[in-house]
Amino acid sequence: MINVIGLGYIGLPTALMLSKNGADVVGSDINQDVVSSLKDGSAFFSEEEINKLYKEVYKKIDFKSEYEAADRYIVAVPTPFDRDTKKVDPKYIVKAVEEIVKVCEEDSIIIIESTVSPGTIDKFIRPIVEGSNKKIHLAHAPERILPTNIVYELVNNSRTIGADDKKVLDEVEKIYSSFCKGEIFKTSIKVAEMTKVVENTYRDINIAFANELAQICDLSGLDVYEVIKIANKHPRVNILNPGPGVGGHCISVDPWFLVGDFPKQTRLINSARYVNDSMPLYVKNKLNSIMIDEGITDYSRVGIYGLTYKANVDDVRESPSMQFLSILKEEDRDKIVVYDPYIKKMMYRSQAFDFQDFLNSCDIVLIMVDHEEIKNSTNVSKLRGKVVFDTKHIGEELKNRAKVYYSL
Ligand code: SAJ
């Protein structure tokens, strides 16, 4: 039996997938509301594929807040970073493992899926296990799934497994190969920790390059998207997309783990983080000049489309829109109209919950997230007559519809 600890956007799909493929799964989470909604079948997810998988198997899974006496554990709890030291804050995985060692069986395997900086498991988790009076094995199996395509990627992405010896590696491989069709790479715990952080850091640096390129092209009077499109025709060039900043609790966080642990060796990584975190201010400064050009003096005539960290998700963690709003003066933040089709709860004083109501409330539309909703032609045509500042390069049709079209 496998006890999955932490039923968030990683733990839950993993528990569902394991159960679908024959495992006897207990899903544990400290949030009683999460447990109750999962148990009674009322849980709902922004990804349709997860809803389908959930409806198919939820009755087979024992959802509870307690931890189970088992021999296999998967820990998928948050690993925030300390904003001052830039180091990983391991408190949640430490707490989870402390609770597991109280109930787990002899010869159990604890698999940490949460993203951690290299050396975290040795430093914070191994002492707990060694301090227990049980023979317990550790492993690290970081996930690579992309929110908006979680179920497909759970099955098809390759997987990295780190452990101390072949026997444990083979046991953990058996668990993941029950659903993973991708290649499974077996290595040490520390290499697995490092590769996960490196993957996200690589992406953050490349997004920072695209964001710097956007600023260079803006000053040069060039269309950065045309430059990127043509440059990417080169067989060994793959420039990513510029945007209003980098959000989410992965790409915007994981690089800091390396900066925090290796401050002298991470100037490039550090600079990339500052480039990406400076984009909301760049957007604000550009918006201010657009407002002057368009004779709009009051933020009450400005509307922000999109609050989530990226398209077609309902997660607002570290989102560029939230970063943008946090740098506005309070009086302006209270005036600006915000709207996001994925956000149903009131988060800001002037928030719309209907696309047309949102458009009726503003003269300038600042597009910060490229949800499918804003890309469909019916809604694009509703932008006719608006001044549009499009930070996500929604598409050519928008240029022809907007009264005046600006982009990054
Ligand atoms: N973004 C850009 N330009 C781009 C791509 C993304 O500005 O070209 C922005 C997005 O708008 C968003 C942020 O970056 O604000 C991150 O979005 P993302 O889609 O790049 O990544 P996440 O955070 O949703 O998922 C990433 C993935 N990591 C990589 O692609 C290397 C995923 O595979 C990981 O599993 C996930 O982090 C994680 O949980 O670590």
Order of neighbouring strands in the sheet with most strands: 3-2-1-4-5-6-7-8
Helix content: 40-55%
Number of domains: 2
CATH H level, superfamily name of the largest domain: NAD(P)-binding Rossmann-like Domain
Low-confidence stretches: none
**Strand-residue fraction?**
5-15%
* Count of DSSP-assigned helices: 17
What binds here, in terms of ligands, is:
ligand SAJ
Overall strand count: 13
Indicate the radius of gyration in whole angstroms.
23 Å
User: Any idea of the CATH class of the largest domain?
Assistant: Alpha Beta
State mean pLDDT (0 to 100 scale).
Answer: 96
Can you describe this structure?
It is a single chain. The protein has 17 helices and 13 strands. With 408 residues, the chain is α/β, with parallel strands linked by helices. The chain folds into 2 domains: 2-187, NAD(P)-binding Rossmann-like Domain (Rossmann fold, 3-Layer(aba) Sandwich), CATH 3.40.50.720; 200-407, Rossmann fold (3-Layer(aba) Sandwich). The strands form 2 sheets. Strands 3-2-1-4-5-6-7-8 form an 8-stranded mixed beta sheet, sandwiched between helices. The termini are far apart. Residues 115, 143-147, 199-200, 203, 207, 240-241, 243, 246-248, 250-251, 309-310 line the site of ligand SAJ.
